[in-house]
Write a structure and sequence with these properties.
This protein is mainly β and 102 residues long. It has a domain of 47 residues. The chain contains 2 helices and 3 strands; from the N terminus they run βββαα. The chain has a 3-stranded antiparallel sheet, covered by helices on one side. Strand 1 and strand 2 form a beta hairpin. The longest helix has 7 residues. The radius of gyration is 15 Å and the shape is flat. It starts with 24 loop residues before the first strand and ends in a 7-residue tail after the last helix. 7% of the residues are buried. The protein binds zinc ion (ZN).
Length: 102
């Protein structure tokens, strides 16, 4: 059975495939409502400009869950730099609505 989820590297230019080392800037989106476990989803977004073709795009860098009713769980959350984030298509559809704050 084929897997539905695709691994996508947010640092790679969707037009030409050049890997960008750093986003132009990053910002954080906090979900206004907690999920059913009482956790808040924090989404870290980044905007990128491709040094090769000039294409600009935005991508989700990381999603974090904060809070909830299980004390101690936060500390168990791994903090890994360079983690590859899986993005589904439903996330990509929402990106256009996510404007970076000025
Ligand atoms: Zn490019």
């Amino acid at each position: 059975m084929p897997k539905k989820k695709k691994s996508k590297d947010p640092y790679v230019c969707p037009r030409c495939g050049t890997r960008v080392t750093e986003p132009d800037r990053t910002w954080t989106l906090v979900s206004p409502l907690p999920d059913k476990y009482g956790r808040i989803t924090i989404t870290i977004m980044g905007s990128f400009t491709c040094p090769n073709c000039g294409h600009k795009w935005r991508a989700v860098l990381k999603k974090l869950k904060e809070g909830g009713s299980k004390p101690g769980e936060q500390q168990a959350a791994p903090k890994e730099e360079g983690e590859i984030i899986e993005i589904d298509l439903s996330d990509l559809d929402k990106l256009d609505e996510m404007e970076p704050p000025e």
